[in-house]
Write a structure and sequence with these properties.
361 residues; single chain; elongated; alpha/beta; three-stranded mixed β-sheet
């Protein structure tokens, strides 16, 4: 009787110890209740939305991303209303330093000119960078213009007005396009320049990649520019574009990968490596990366940890989803450089926020 009583009395103690430890841990390490909030690039939204959905399914951590354009994303991270911003226009090292930010590329894609011209399918219309610049400068106004006809012998081009569709909001997609056009057209460089928002002399403005795709698909004679995934989803006819090596190429994962392979990430301060107008016979000339913008000193430790775990997961387990959507995952050697740079990310007490890769698959 005494033995059974002794056994009964002793059994609860290990459980009480476990409960006490769990209670202490929950007080010291509160659960992440608000998730991770990001905002910015519409260019990256198709793949980032897929990543967020898959990551929540395996970890329970919610990544809430608002596709509001790179310009707004930059403003929101600088005002600390989000945990990370996403921009296709990388910030200069001096601007990052002044704001206490760091940036790193998360994925690569292509900006694709798309057209709505009757009888012209994907890849059939050939353009050069200088002709594309003249269209957006308002210097070429008809689809049967000589400059376009000379590039497309045998293609039936209508005597139809060209309606340029462009972004109305601050846009990294515009930055990538403008950066490319400034490299191939002196007129564009001198008259328009390179920025997330430029003064287009003609055409119709749409908000986000979705808006430009929508206007292009509804407007006869239109030409627009969108991230490749939007062209595919909207079933728009993309153009064949002459690249730096003189080859006419169509957009796709291999063409974007060629641009990535020719970029010198190791020598780029703050990963500011231009991908537009890169060499290579297969290279798509209007290629760009989306950059995450985060603070070096994080105010919320748990959120910072989960945010970096998410990006680590996206580089590894998320690579397949990027491939499926025709984006290019960051090369492994670049990922190693990026995660080494995360050593600079600390909490308010100076403790590192990044320790080791996540095991989430």
């Amino acid at each position: 009787m005494s033995n059974s009583t002794e056994t009964f009395v002793r059994q609860p103690f290990p459980s009480l110890i476990v409960v006490a430890v769990l209670c202490w841990a929950s007080m010291c390490m509160p659960a992440l209740s608000e998730g991770v909030l990001g905002a910015g690039s519409t260019f990256v939204y198709p793949v980032l939305a897929k990543w967020a959905e898959a990551y929540e399914a395996v970890t329970g951590v919610k990544i809430d991303y608002q596709a509001v354009g790179s310009g707004v994303g930059i403003r929101q991270i600088k005002s600390r209303t989000v945990d990370f911003g996403a921009s296709d226009a990388p910030l200069r090292p001096e601007e990052l330093a002044a704001a206490g930010l760091m940036q790193f590329p998360i994925v690569v894609g292509g900006v694709v000119p798309v057209v709505n011209v009757e009888g012209i399918g994907p890849g059939q219309l050939r353009l050069t960078g200088s002709v594309l610049a003249d269209i957006y400068l308002g210097k070429i106004t008809k689809w049967n213009a000589e400059a376009i006809g000379d590039l497309n012998p045998g293609l039936a081009l209508p005597n139809q007005a060209i309606i340029p569709i462009h972004r109305a909001d601050g846009s990294g997609t515009t930055f990538v396009l403008a950066d490319y056009l400034a490299r191939v057209s002196a007129k564009w460089r001198d008259e328009i320049g390179v920025n997330t928002a430029v003064e287009f002399p003609t055409g119709i403005g749409g908000k986000g990649n979705e808006g430009v795709a929508g206007f292009t698909s509804r407007t006869k004679g239109a030409i627009g520019y969108v991230e490749h995934a939007y062209a595919i989803r909207s079933k728009l006819a993309y153009v064949s574009l002459k690249n730096r090596d003189g080859e006419f190429v169509t957009p796709g994962r291999q063409a974007f990968q060629s641009a990535v392979a020719n970029a010198d990430w190791a020598a780029a301060p703050a990963f500011y490596a231009p991908l537009a107008h890169q060499p290579g016979k297969q290279t798509w000339p209007i290629t760009g990366a989306t950059f995450a913008l985060i603070y070096k000193q994080q105010q919320r430790r748990l959120t910072a940890i989960e945010m970096l775990k998410f990006f680590d997961w996206s580089y590894r387990a998320g690579a397949k989803l990027a491939d499926e959507l025709q984006y290019v995952p960051m090369p492994k050697d670049v990922v190693q450089m990026i995660e080494s740079a995360w050593a600079e990310v600390t909490d308010a007490h100076g403790q590192p926020a990044w320790m080791e890769p996540t095991t989430a698959k």
